[in-house]
Amino acid sequence: MVKIKTLEYFRVKPRWLFVKLTDEKGGYGWGEATLEGHSQAVEGTLDEYRTVIVGMEADNIEYIWQKLYRHGFYRGGPVFMSAIAGIDIALWDLKARNLHLPIHALLGGKVRTKLKVYCWIGGDSPSDIRAAALSRKSQNLTTIKMNATSSLDWLSSPRDLHPTLDRLNTVTSLGLDAALDFHGRLHRGPAKHLASLLSSSSSSAVPIPPLFIEEPLLMEHPEALKQFADHQTHGIPVAFGERLYTRWDAKRYLHDSSVDILQPDVSHAGGISEVKRIASMAEAYDVSIAPHCPLGPIALAACMQIGICTQNFVIQEMGLGIHYNAEVEGGRWDLGSYLKGESRGVFEIREGGYVEALEGIGLGIEVDEEVVRRVAGEMGGESWVNGGFVGEDGAIREW
């Protein structure tokens, strides 16, 4: 058994936080602990966790996970679980590399040889949808996701939701499937308007319904989400989960039948270990998973390792060319920017909107450590900051 020697983290552009672990024999593993807009908070937790895990047996991934989760007494939430995620992913990468195997081989092996993926179009305030959709179609994608609305108030005019239908129809008329992300911007009243507008897939207003509706309401309103799920008449799958950080967070929504597609984020929800457990729980309720991942290449590779060996996986989000990347230095920093060699091409989207299963050892990618260290050194105190909406009356709105 080999002990953990070092834990380092690297804040890099456009908004990612990478983690590297080494062992006493020179082995290494990479993880991603990105928590968008809160890198400093996660870094502080990683500093604390370093004092716990250095010197522990690197192969004992589950023991380390349980110790970090339970011995801190205060547990869960995005900051703690993102720090645990970065460590957990790196431990799986380290172990699989030492064994010269891909991670999915340690999780039971493949159930599929390729994974369906989707990418984003539009930004926080969606526009130019047709051109963006055509561009994605030219990349072999068959499915896209877009923000359904811009800023909304607690009680918005039903007219504010009608442009959503226009954008949806624009995309589906091009032969693409579209997922609508409401980003938790709706409150209870407007959510009912939404359900009414999308009430009939055969209506002239919505000839082809969305593939799924994402985060129609915030997670802190479980009773409203259950009501939405129980009383909706549109028959469109409801997806959420990027703001659920453990299996215990997800448990209520599975039991309530409030969700059809769970979207745990491997960088927010305790890493590969916990997301795999969440997926197994979801399968028992006939709920699929579509991991949230508008993040970096390490997180995407970790999601893919899970998807390759998980029966109820359905589709993978990938942040290729997402607006958050494009807004930093003209999109210079994207999924391939911190990879080297052949792994720069492992996320290539092939015919039908699929990415081939990763077959390399560990995560299946090779991180260009030289570039990571250089960019992290140039960052100084710079950190990506979340956006935000303010209403015409000056009140804060959900972003």
The sequence of SSEs as H and E is EEEHHHHEHEHEHEHEHEHEHEHEHEE
Note the main sheet: 9 strands, mixed
Beta-strand content estimate: 5-15%
Query: What is the overall pLDDT average?
Result: 93
Summarize it.
This protein has 399 residues and is of the alpha/beta class. Helices cover 35% and strands 14% of the residues. The longest helix is centred in the first third of the chain and has 21 residues, at 78-98.
How does this structure look, described?
This protein has 399 residues and is α/β, with parallel strands linked by helices. The protein has 13 helices and 14 strands. It has helices spanning 39-53, 61-70, 78-98, 103-106, 129-138, 162-172, 188-197, 222-231, 247-255, 271-284, 297-308, 323-326, 369-379; strands at residues 4-12, 16-23, 28-32, 114-120, 143-147, 177-181, 213-214, 238-240, 261-262, 288-289, 316-317, 354-356, 389-390, 396-397. Strands 4, 5, 6, 7, 8, 9, 10, 11 and 12 form a nine-stranded mixed β-sheet that branches. Strands 1-2-3 form a three-stranded antiparallel β-sheet. A two-stranded antiparallel sheet has the order 13-14. Helix 2 packs antiparallel against helix 3. The mean pLDDT is 93.
